[in-house]
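Input (structure):
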Protein backbone atom coordinates (compact mmCIF):
# COMPACT_ATOMS: atom_id res chain seq x y z
CA UNK A 1 0.00 0.00 0.00
CA UNK A 2 1.22 3.50 -0.79
CA UNK A 3 -0.05 6.40 1.32
CA UNK A 4 -0.17 9.98 0.08
CA UNK A 5 -0.97 12.81 2.46
CA UNK A 6 -1.97 16.21 1.07
CA UNK A 7 -1.85 19.65 2.69
CA UNK A 8 -5.60 20.12 2.11
CA UNK A 9 -8.62 18.62 0.36
CA UNK A 10 -8.33 20.90 -2.65
CA UNK A 11 -4.77 19.78 -3.33
CA UNK A 12 -5.87 16.19 -2.94
CA UNK A 13 -8.66 16.60 -5.48
CA UNK A 14 -6.43 18.34 -8.04
CA UNK A 15 -3.61 15.86 -7.70
CA UNK A 16 -5.76 12.73 -7.63
CA UNK A 17 -7.80 13.83 -10.65
CA UNK A 18 -4.53 14.47 -12.49
CA UNK A 19 -3.18 11.00 -11.60
CA UNK A 20 -6.40 9.31 -12.73
CA UNK A 21 -6.47 11.26 -16.00
CA UNK A 22 -2.81 10.35 -16.66
CA UNK A 23 -3.48 6.64 -16.06
CA UNK A 24 -6.48 6.70 -18.41
CA UNK A 25 -4.45 8.59 -21.04
CA UNK A 26 -1.61 6.09 -20.72
CA UNK A 27 -4.02 3.21 -21.35
CA UNK A 28 -5.52 5.05 -24.34
CA UNK A 29 -2.04 5.46 -25.85
CA UNK A 30 -1.54 1.70 -25.97
CA UNK A 31 -5.12 0.44 -26.29
CA UNK A 32 -8.36 1.44 -27.98
CA UNK A 33 -10.37 1.86 -24.80
CA UNK A 34 -10.08 2.43 -21.06
CA UNK A 35 -12.39 1.96 -18.09
CA UNK A 36 -12.95 3.97 -14.94
CA UNK A 37 -14.83 2.73 -11.89
CA UNK A 38 -15.73 5.32 -9.26
CA UNK A 39 -17.41 5.52 -5.85
CA UNK A 40 -20.49 7.41 -4.79
CA UNK A 41 -21.05 8.86 -1.34
CA UNK A 42 -19.93 12.32 -0.33
CA UNK A 43 -16.16 12.34 -0.72
CA UNK A 44 -15.44 12.22 -4.47
CA UNK A 45 -17.30 15.36 -5.68
CA UNK A 46 -14.24 17.68 -5.94
CA UNK A 47 -12.22 14.96 -7.69
CA UNK A 48 -15.07 14.43 -10.16
CA UNK A 49 -15.35 18.13 -10.91
CA UNK A 50 -11.67 18.43 -11.77
CA UNK A 51 -11.54 15.13 -13.64
CA UNK A 52 -14.54 16.05 -15.80
CA UNK A 53 -12.42 18.73 -17.49
CA UNK A 54 -9.44 16.45 -18.21
CA UNK A 55 -8.24 16.60 -21.78
CA UNK A 56 -8.41 12.90 -22.68
CA UNK A 57 -10.38 10.95 -25.30
CA UNK A 58 -13.43 10.45 -23.10
CA UNK A 59 -15.37 8.88 -25.97
CA UNK A 60 -13.02 5.88 -25.59
CA UNK A 61 -13.52 5.66 -21.81
CA UNK A 62 -16.27 3.61 -20.16
CA UNK A 63 -17.34 4.87 -16.74
CA UNK A 64 -19.33 2.98 -14.11
CA UNK A 65 -19.87 3.07 -10.37
CA UNK A 66 -18.40 0.50 -8.02
CA UNK A 67 -21.73 0.34 -6.25
CA UNK A 68 -25.22 1.77 -6.36
CA UNK A 69 -28.03 2.30 -3.88
CA UNK A 70 -31.27 0.84 -5.22
CA UNK A 71 -33.14 4.13 -5.47
CA UNK A 72 -34.41 6.12 -8.46
CA UNK A 73 -31.78 7.98 -10.44
CA UNK A 74 -33.10 11.36 -9.28
CA UNK A 75 -33.18 10.38 -5.59
CA UNK A 76 -30.79 12.38 -3.42
CA UNK A 77 -29.09 9.15 -2.28
CA UNK A 78 -28.49 7.93 -5.83
CA UNK A 79 -24.78 7.56 -6.55
CA UNK A 80 -25.62 7.85 -10.26
CA UNK A 81 -27.15 11.26 -9.65
CA UNK A 82 -23.87 12.40 -8.09
CA UNK A 83 -21.97 11.06 -11.07
CA UNK A 84 -24.19 12.69 -13.67
CA UNK A 85 -24.01 16.04 -11.88
CA UNK A 86 -20.30 16.16 -11.12
CA UNK A 87 -18.36 13.81 -13.42
CA UNK A 88 -20.32 13.12 -16.61
CA UNK A 89 -20.24 16.73 -17.76
CA UNK A 90 -17.80 19.07 -19.50
CA UNK A 91 -15.32 16.92 -21.51
CA UNK A 92 -16.29 13.76 -19.59
CA UNK A 93 -19.85 14.04 -20.94
CA UNK A 94 -18.50 12.14 -23.98
CA UNK A 95 -17.72 9.03 -21.90
CA UNK A 96 -19.64 5.80 -22.35
CA UNK A 97 -21.61 5.34 -19.10
CA UNK A 98 -22.96 2.09 -17.71
CA UNK A 99 -25.72 2.92 -15.21
CA UNK A 100 -25.90 0.33 -12.41
CA UNK A 101 -29.46 1.32 -11.54
CA UNK A 102 -31.78 -0.30 -14.05
CA UNK A 103 -35.16 0.51 -12.50
CA UNK A 104 -36.10 -3.08 -11.69
CA UNK A 105 -37.81 -3.68 -8.34
CA UNK A 106 -34.72 -5.28 -6.84
CA UNK A 107 -31.01 -5.32 -7.66
CA UNK A 108 -31.18 -9.12 -7.79
CA UNK A 109 -33.02 -8.98 -11.13
CA UNK A 110 -30.47 -6.58 -12.60
CA UNK A 111 -27.20 -8.25 -11.58
CA UNK A 112 -26.68 -10.80 -14.40
CA UNK A 113 -27.15 -8.29 -17.24
CA UNK A 114 -25.00 -5.70 -15.49
CA UNK A 115 -22.20 -8.22 -15.11
CA UNK A 116 -22.33 -8.90 -18.87
CA UNK A 117 -22.28 -5.16 -19.62
CA UNK A 118 -19.21 -4.60 -17.44
CA UNK A 119 -17.24 -7.75 -18.29
CA UNK A 120 -15.85 -6.44 -21.64
CA UNK A 121 -14.28 -3.54 -19.71
CA UNK A 122 -12.08 -5.72 -17.50
CA UNK A 123 -9.44 -5.38 -16.27
CA UNK A 124 -10.58 -1.98 -15.10
CA UNK A 125 -7.99 0.64 -15.96
CA UNK A 126 -8.58 2.79 -12.88
CA UNK A 127 -10.63 2.00 -9.78
CA UNK A 128 -11.28 4.77 -7.30
CA UNK A 129 -12.70 3.52 -3.99
CA UNK A 130 -14.20 5.41 -1.08
CA UNK A 131 -14.46 4.11 2.46
CA UNK A 132 -17.00 4.63 5.24
CA UNK A 133 -16.06 5.05 8.89
CA UNK A 134 -17.25 1.46 9.35
CA UNK A 135 -14.50 0.37 6.88
CA UNK A 136 -16.96 -0.58 4.13
CA UNK A 137 -15.97 0.09 0.57
CA UNK A 138 -18.21 0.03 -2.51
CA UNK A 139 -21.27 -1.67 -0.89
CA UNK A 140 -19.19 -4.34 0.81
CA UNK A 141 -20.32 -3.59 4.37
CA UNK A 142 -19.19 -5.43 7.50
CA UNK A 143 -22.05 -7.78 8.39
CA UNK A 144 -23.70 -7.60 4.94
CA UNK A 145 -25.76 -10.65 3.97
CA UNK A 146 -23.50 -11.67 1.05
CA UNK A 147 -20.17 -10.18 2.14
CA UNK A 148 -18.26 -13.47 2.17
CA UNK A 149 -19.45 -14.15 -1.39
CA UNK A 150 -18.44 -10.65 -2.48
CA UNK A 151 -14.94 -11.06 -1.07
CA UNK A 152 -14.34 -14.53 -2.52
CA UNK A 153 -11.82 -14.98 -5.33
CA UNK A 154 -14.58 -16.54 -7.48
CA UNK A 155 -17.19 -13.90 -6.63
CA UNK A 156 -19.73 -13.00 -9.31
CA UNK A 157 -18.69 -9.72 -10.91
CA UNK A 158 -21.78 -7.88 -9.67
CA UNK A 159 -23.63 -8.74 -6.46
CA UNK A 160 -26.92 -7.60 -4.94
CA UNK A 161 -26.30 -7.01 -1.25
CA UNK A 162 -28.13 -5.89 1.87
CA UNK A 163 -26.67 -4.66 5.16
CA UNK A 164 -27.88 -3.08 8.35
CA UNK A 165 -25.51 -0.16 7.87
CA UNK A 166 -26.91 0.54 4.39
CA UNK A 167 -30.25 2.29 4.18
CA UNK A 168 -31.46 0.48 1.07
CA UNK A 169 -30.64 -2.64 -0.97
CA UNK A 170 -27.46 -2.18 -2.96
CA UNK A 171 -25.65 -3.54 -5.94
CA UNK A 172 -21.88 -3.76 -5.80
CA UNK A 173 -18.90 -4.85 -7.82
CA UNK A 174 -16.95 -7.50 -5.95
CA UNK A 175 -13.40 -8.15 -4.87
CA UNK A 176 -11.89 -9.75 -8.00
CA UNK A 177 -12.95 -7.02 -10.41
CA UNK A 178 -12.06 -4.17 -8.07
CA UNK A 179 -8.82 -5.59 -6.64
CA UNK A 180 -7.49 -6.75 -10.03
CA UNK A 181 -7.77 -3.31 -11.60
CA UNK A 182 -4.65 -1.94 -13.25
CA UNK A 183 -4.61 1.03 -10.86
CA UNK A 184 -6.40 1.18 -7.51
CA UNK A 185 -6.87 4.41 -5.55
CA UNK A 186 -8.60 4.89 -2.22
CA UNK A 187 -9.89 8.35 -1.32
CA UNK A 188 -10.38 9.18 2.36
CA UNK A 189 -10.64 12.47 4.22
CA UNK A 190 -10.65 13.50 7.85
CA UNK A 191 -9.18 12.04 11.07
CA UNK A 192 -11.94 9.45 11.63
CA UNK A 193 -11.29 7.77 8.29
CA UNK A 194 -7.54 7.85 8.85
CA UNK A 195 -8.09 6.02 12.14
CA UNK A 196 -10.48 3.57 10.46
CA UNK A 197 -7.85 2.87 7.80
CA UNK A 198 -5.20 2.17 10.43
CA UNK A 199 -7.62 -0.17 12.19
CA UNK A 200 -8.53 -1.91 8.94
CA UNK A 201 -4.88 -2.73 8.28
CA UNK A 202 -4.92 -4.98 11.37
CA UNK A 203 -8.20 -6.77 10.58
CA UNK A 204 -9.52 -9.44 8.26
CA UNK A 205 -11.54 -8.27 5.21
CA UNK A 206 -14.66 -9.89 6.63
CA UNK A 207 -14.45 -7.39 9.52
CA UNK A 208 -12.97 -4.55 7.49
CA UNK A 209 -13.82 -4.99 3.78
CA UNK A 210 -11.49 -2.17 2.65
CA UNK A 211 -8.61 -4.40 3.80
CA UNK A 212 -9.17 -6.60 0.73
CA UNK A 213 -8.08 -3.76 -1.56
CA UNK A 214 -5.18 -2.15 0.28
CA UNK A 215 -2.23 -4.23 -0.87
CA UNK A 216 -2.18 -2.82 -4.41
CA UNK A 217 -3.74 0.53 -3.62
CA UNK A 218 -2.58 4.08 -3.26
CA UNK A 219 -4.48 5.72 -0.41
CA UNK A 220 -5.01 9.48 -0.73
CA UNK A 221 -5.72 11.38 2.49
CA UNK A 222 -6.19 14.97 3.58
CA UNK A 223 -7.39 16.35 6.90
O1 LIG B 1 -22.50 4.29 0.77
C1 LIG B 1 -21.44 4.58 0.25
O2 LIG B 1 -20.42 4.98 1.03
C2 LIG B 1 -19.04 4.94 0.61
C3 LIG B 1 -18.31 6.01 1.43
O3 LIG B 1 -18.98 7.24 1.22
P1 LIG B 1 -18.54 8.63 1.88
O4 LIG B 1 -19.80 9.46 1.87
O5 LIG B 1 -18.09 8.34 3.29
O6 LIG B 1 -17.47 9.21 1.04
C4 LIG B 1 -18.90 5.13 -0.88
O7 LIG B 1 -17.58 4.91 -1.28
C5 LIG B 1 -19.88 4.23 -1.61
O8 LIG B 1 -19.73 4.36 -3.01
C6 LIG B 1 -21.27 4.62 -1.21
O9 LIG B 1 -22.28 3.88 -1.87
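Output (sequence):
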Amino acid sequence: MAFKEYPDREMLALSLADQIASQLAQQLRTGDTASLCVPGGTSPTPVFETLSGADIDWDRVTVFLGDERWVDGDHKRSNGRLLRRHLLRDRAAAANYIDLYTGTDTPDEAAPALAEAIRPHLPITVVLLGMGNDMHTASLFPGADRLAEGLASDAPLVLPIRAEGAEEPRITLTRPALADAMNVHVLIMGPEKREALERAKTLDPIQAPIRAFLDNATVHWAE
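Notes: The longest strand covers residues 183-189. Helices lie at 9-30, 45-51, 79-86, 107-118, 147-151, 175-179, 191-200.
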